[in-house]
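New here. Your pick:
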Amino acid sequence: MISFTVDDKKFNFRVGAIIIDTKSNKVLLNTIEGFGFYLLPGGRVEWMENSTEAIKRELDEEIGLKNIDPKYIGTLENFFNFKGVNFHEISNNFVIYLDENNSIPRDDEFRGLEGDKHIYRWVSIEDIDKVKLQPSVLAKMIKNVGNEPKLYELQNNEEI
């Protein structure tokens, strides 16, 4: 994975997916038990792996999602402090529209394939502002689905 630490700073190259259930108009969010916030499903890119292949691999590993057609929606450059470590993270993000042919759980909340601490939750897009997301700009990105891809850059460090 492309993630490394220099002194008290850590860099991550990540991919994320705005997964939309077209029937219910809900988006799938992810958290890890004890985090207290949600993020987009996804993960870190491996060395010499392109972002599209990375998001396909991550979603298969995390929730068993196969045969998807991710569409690039934007890049997020994020600076934050998590548990005393300063992070610089770049994330290429995609939108994936699910229909009844995609066989992943549609329960409001379910556990992922990588262990019980990985929690997934379906949230109505109209209620996305009521959910604590990190980074907070994700709500704007989710609502922007369908518009031109763009760079979302956070100027202020967020404390998580």
